[in-house]
Structures are given as C-alpha cells and as structure tokens.
Amino acid sequence: MLVVIEDVAWIVEPYIFGKVIDSVIDVQIFEKKSNILQSTNKTETEKLKELEDEGLLPDSVSTETTPHSSIWDSIKVSLKENPESTIILPLGLWILAFAINSGVGAFRRSIDPKIFLRIYTRIATSISRTSILKKISISKTTARVELSQQFISFLEFRVPEIIQNTISISGAVIALYFFDWIISLTCLLIVLPMYIINKLYMRKVGKLQKEFHDNYEEIYDVFAKRDPVHVRDYYNKLAAPQKKIANWGSFNFAFMRFTLLIIFLVVLYVAIELDNFSAGELYSIVAYLWTFVSATEYMPELLENWSSMKDIARRLREDNNA
C-alpha cells in the first residue's frame, strides 16, 4: 500500500508541474505587458507596435486592421486579471504530491529492512529444520539458503519496482489521453504486442532459470572435490543457461526499442502537425513519455527476476510440502 501511495503521487506530479510552468509563463507575460504599457517615453502607437512584435497581442488582433480603441479595451480587460494568484493552487498541489511521494518513500525505506530481515531469518531457520529432518545435503541446504536471500531481496526491492512500473505504464497512458488521444492510443496499442513478447520471454527464461538453479544447488559439492578442472567445467555448465537468457534479453530489448521509436514518431507528428501545446503541456507529455519508455525498458529485467523467484519459491515450497 505504501508503494502504491508513493508511486501514484509520483505519476500525477508531471501533470501538476506542467500547470505550474504555464502559470509562471502567464505571470511573466503579464509583467512584460505591464512594463510596456507603463513606459512613459513611448507613444500609444509605439506601445501597441512593441506588444505586437513581442507576440503579446491575440493572434486575431493586428494593429494595422483592428481599431486601436478596441485593442486598448481588450488590453485593459486582460490587465484586470492578474495571473499571480492562479499559480498558488497548482504550486500547492505539486508541493503536496512531492511531499507525499518523498515522505511515504522515506517511511517505507525505513521499515522495509526490518520486515524482510525477519522474514529471511524465518525462511533460513525453516530450511535448516527441513534439511535436518529430511537429511538433505549440506550443499543443497546452503545453496537454498542463499537462493532464499535472493528471494527476500526480490520481495524487498523488485516487487515495489514491478508495482511502480505497472503504475507508471498505465498512469502514463491514462495521463497522455488528456493531452491527445492519438498519443495515448499509440502507447496502448504498443503495450499489447509487448505483452505477448514478454509472455514468450518468461516461458523461455523460466526453463533456463530452472536449469541454472538445478546446477547452482551443486556448487558446494563441486568445491568439496578440490579439483580445479572440475570447477572450470562446472562454471562453464552454469554459464550456459545464463548466456541463453542474455540472448533472449537482447532480443526483447531490441523489439522494445523499435516499438518505442514508433511512439516518438507519433508524438512528433501530433505535436507539430495536429496540436498547439503550451510549454507546460509539452513538459508533461515529454515527462510521461519518458516515464512510459523507462518503465517499459526495465520490464524484461524485472520479468527475468520474477521468473527466477518463481522457481526459487517452488523449490522452497517443495521442501516444506514433501
């Protein structure tokens, strides 16, 4: 729950901060317009010309075709609405989201080690008790205790990352919909083939992880023989499934990079040809896009760890149930 609260606060931050940027720009434009109008050494015509040159007049207004009296009336109306007060709400919301993310994150990182160290102690004790009752070899017992440490590390660090990446991908797709549905739909459509590829990846890697763990449980017996040649052959055998896992990881990474290139091209087309985004909106879109990209690129590594932990959990469960 703490991970979810922390990451939800983080995923809404770019949207809110984009509003802060737009508010800051509005204040700067207001001050610039006010300074020009309050200038005492220029005529009204010169002021209007400078406002037009600086792009501070509406696009539909031109000093050559629009009566000056009408322009001055619209400027006076706009000066009555000082945008400085509008920055307070988005800035306050952004500070709140940042504080929730930071505060909950700090609290979670404080209590996590205490929880998972207790879990590891219980698992190690259970493995020791089971090995004595069932007369399991010292090599296999020690290897499984070390594998259980990887299991605990996975729970402590990788599970929060899986939750974070899930929230980041889904949150980015939803947030991008509020800016342009084409960008959001493109990200959503690309998630589907990536899901299929990742399912295939997990199936292949799962078998290789089982092969690796089968070999790893013999590590202490190998060193007990005191034969360097046997150790070399053993590590060559141990490396074989890891090399295949690396090849599958490389393929998965290349496929994801290709799909992400499509997203970038779509975003460029939408931003240039279809929409007229403000500076704050462009910041939000880029932030969510990079969030989507970063989370997607990291998924193969998390899936590899997930596959490894499933096999370790199966081994620990078999010992307890046998």
Low-confidence stretches: none
Helix percentage: over 70%
Q: Per the principal axes of the C-alpha atoms, what is the gross shape?
A: elongated
Count the strands?
Answer: 0
- Percent of sequence in beta strands: under 5%
Query: pLDDT average, as an integer?
Result: 76
What would you report as the Rg, rounded to the nearest angstrom? 30 Å
Backbone structural class: mainly alpha
Provide the number of structural domains.
Answer: 2
| CATH level 3 topology of the largest domain | ABC transporter transmembrane region fold
Largest sheet: none
**What distance lies between the first and last C-alpha atoms, to the nearest angstrom?**
34 Å
Label the CATH architecture of the largest domain: Up-down Bundle
Total helical elements = 9
CATH homology-level superfamily of the largest domain: ABC transporter type 1, transmembrane domain
Order of helices and strands: HHHHHHHHH
CATH class of the largest domain: Mainly Alpha
Explained architecture:
This protein is mainly alpha-helical and 322 residues long. The chain folds into 2 domains: 2-85, no CATH class; 115-321, ABC transporter transmembrane region fold (Up-down Bundle), CATH 1.20.1560.10. 86% of the residues lie in helices and 0% in strands. It contains 9 helices and no strands.
